[in-house]
Amino acid sequence: MIKELLYAITPENHPVIWMVVTCALGFLVAYNAYPSVLFVAREKHLMDEPESRSAHKERTPTLGGIGIFISIMVVLTLVGAFLNTKVLLLVMGSITILFFIGLKDDLAGTSPGKKLFGQLLAATLLLVFTNTRIVGFSGILEVSVLPYGLSLVFTLFVYIIIVNAYNLIDGIDGLAGSIACLVSMVYGILFLMANQLSLAILAMALVGSILAFLRCNFSKKHKIFMGDTGSMVVGFLLAFFTVSFINIVQTAPSSPYYKDAPVVAIALLFYPLLDTLRVFALRVFKYKVSPFKADRNHIHHHIINLGYSHLQATIWIVAINALIIVITFKLLPLNLNTQILCLVGYGALLYGLPFVIKAKAKTSLPEDSY
């Protein structure tokens, strides 16, 4: 009877229900963890002090990633027996490494070199033991398959780019969490379509934990920031989803996205990638400083400077990224190189919308209203 009951409730038989339950469980665990995290942060004065480039004016806890990490670990522990245990254990080990590096950085500071080493170590664990890597460029620039060694190096490069690009967009309330929710939900659906239930459930566990974080992140009374503790873990999971999706699709010729995996992945993470490329270019070529020198030149900072609130800026950016994803899926019948050129074009144009709308609103006002 027990055997029959276990068979009846396996993820393969009810995948959507499992995804919904996992998301709800992730939310509940994180939701109940945050009061304790906030209490400890305030009692021990573990606060972020506002500075000249900060988007906030008050001392705020920066340990929001603790709730996300605890939630994911608890959920995977509870449901892991029904899933691909090997992959999930490796994921848990990798994000644990990044969690403690991020925690140290939030509490006492960590050198960029140590953070980079931790990211490489975490990514290498998954690469070595699962062989989940980007095998080629799917025909971009006429390159289909990469040599094994180059494939490993390029996959590690993708991990580093995505983790750090995600970390850089954590600059205003709700933005990093909302982008992660959007991307994880889409990946959850794509993994479900590919019958990769372990990855789909992991993606939904992340969605649930981040939704609980966003509740606090947008709160005025119980505000908490994600911090490096969260951005390292969440950014790494988004990178893992990206590499896994591309690997699954590229090794399955029957997949509807067989030749389109790169453009889908770029579209999902378009804002972090675009903002990082833009900021790095400005720092190196215009201001002649290190590309890692912090400033307020991010797109979200400029939107805030136009007079939008944090919530409005976040809604703008997430809505635009969602629209970019929809357009990208609509254009999949096109040649891959054409898709990428179009993506860069309409993506850049759409992110100029808030500036155009604000400029038109100002010019439409009578002179005595300025």
UniProtKB/TrEMBL annotation:
- Per UniProt, Mg(2+) binds at N167, D228
- CDD domains hit by this protein: GT_WecA_like (cd06853)
* Regions crossing the membrane: 16-41, 62-81, 87-104, 116-136, 148-168, 175-193, 199-218, 230-249, 261-285, 306-332, 338-357
Localization annotation: Cell membrane
Q: Which UniProt keywords apply?
A: Cell membrane, Magnesium, Membrane, Metal-binding, Transferase, Transmembrane, Transmembrane helix
Q: GO cellular component annotations, sorted alphabetically? A: plasma membrane
Report the enzyme's class at the first EC level.
transferase
Membrane topology category? Multi-pass membrane protein
Name the cofactor(s) required for activity, per the record: Mg(2+)
BP GO terms, sorted: cell wall macromolecule biosynthetic process; cell wall organization; lipopolysaccharide biosynthetic process
- What's an example of a GO molecular-function annotation for this chain? metal ion binding
This entry's Enzyme Commission designation comes to 2.7.8.-
Report the InterPro entries cross-referenced here. Answer: Glycosyl_transferase_4, PNAcMuramoyl-5peptid_Trfase_CS
Question: What name appears for this protein in its UniProt entry?
Answer: MraY family glycosyltransferase
